[in-house]
Write a structure and sequence with these properties.
This protein is about 35% helix and about 20% strand. With about 300 residues, it is an alpha/beta fold.
Length: about 300
């Protein structure tokens, strides 16, 4: 069993309880305007160019089969429109100006990295988190990883936008020990405009997930000018108040660190320069949700 992975992050502290290893899946079925991991959206391999790291050695030009790299010593040019994403340039780019995101890994290869930190999971109550991108775009690989983790006694947390057809992913949801699902916007039109998809399947799936009685929480990324209105948070909380098995509702402050990734992929960053909300505002929004009868908390 093989899946496309962008990164495996060890010692993750914000992707579920305890010390965790987070496996980032490649490919996503939403196009959120504020995404801080744009390299996880495309399901195939991506090549990044970090111009500030380039020393103009042109080793990349010597190995590129399609002429995407050119220039003179000390002066490098990269034409992303010619790139076929073979990744040969990244293999010889010692300063890290060229990089590849997206590697096909087997379950065995992933577990070889996961198992390095078994003592830390056991001592901290941690485990493995599957994230993305969107994990449920690769349900068979996700289920195989969960089963491999369980065979080693490791609990698995699943982060998902919950937009996939429920019957196609129910086995994965049932197998996970904790599910963290996003609900970004309660207004359908705003959700379509800012994520490229309707939120009706997500709302329906949250109700069905609640019926499974699996441990789950709902999270909203609080993005200035997009999801941070009182009306949006109260609307989401009003919906969640009808979900009796919800563990908690969490508000996640805007992450502004995606800028260099957009630049490296020659993509515009719609939220360039936008900063996270003040802690006081985050706490005020959480208080609004609690006022709707929902157990809510906010990331500073």
């Amino acid at each position: 069993m093989t899946g496309m992975v962008t990164e495996i992050e060890r010692f993750a502290l914000s992707d579920g309880p305890g010390i965790r290893t987070t496996v980032f899946f490649k490919g996503c079925d939403l196009r959120c305007a504020w995404c801080h991991n744009p390299e996880t959206i495309h399901p195939g391999r991506d090549v990044h160019y970090y111009a500030r790291n380039c020393i103009g050695c042109l080793h990349c030009a010597a190995v590129c089969p399609v002429g995407a790299h050119s220039g003179a010593p000390g002066l490098h040019r990269f034409d992303a429109t010619l790139c076929t994403r073979c990744g040969r340039c990244a293999e010889v780019c010692y300063p890290g100006a060229m990089a590849v995101s997206g590697t096909a890994l087997t379950v065995t290869q992933v577990m070889a990295q996961v198992e390095q930190d078994l003592p830390y999971y056991q001592s901290s109550g941690g485990g493995v988190t599957l994230s993305g991108g969107e994990v449920l775009c690769q349900p068979d690989f996700a289920l195989a990883l969960i089963e491999a983790c369980h065979a080693r006694g490791l609990p698995v947390c699943l982060e998902t936008n919950l937009h996939r057809p429920f019957d196609e992913v129910a086995a994965v949801l049932t197998a996970a020990d904790l599910i963290l699902c996003d609900l970004k916007l309660i207004d359908g039109e705003a959700h379509r405009r800012l994520t490229g998809a309707d939120n009706a399947p997500i709302l329906q799936n949250i109700r069905r997930l609640d019926g499974l009685r699996r441990p789950y929480a709902v999270r909203t990324p609080v993005v200035p000018g997009a999801t941070d209105s009182d009306a949006n948070i109260q609307g989401i909380a009003g919906f969640l108040a009808t979900c009796p098995h919800l563990l908690y509702y969490e508000l996640l402050n805007f992450n502004p660190l995606g800028g260099p990734k957009y630049e490296s992929l020659s993509l515009p960053d719609p939220y360039a320069g936008v900063m996270p909300l003040p802690a006081a505002r985050m706490q005020a929004l959480a208080a609004l949700a609690r006022g709707m009868g929902v157990p809510a908390r906010a990331e500073g």
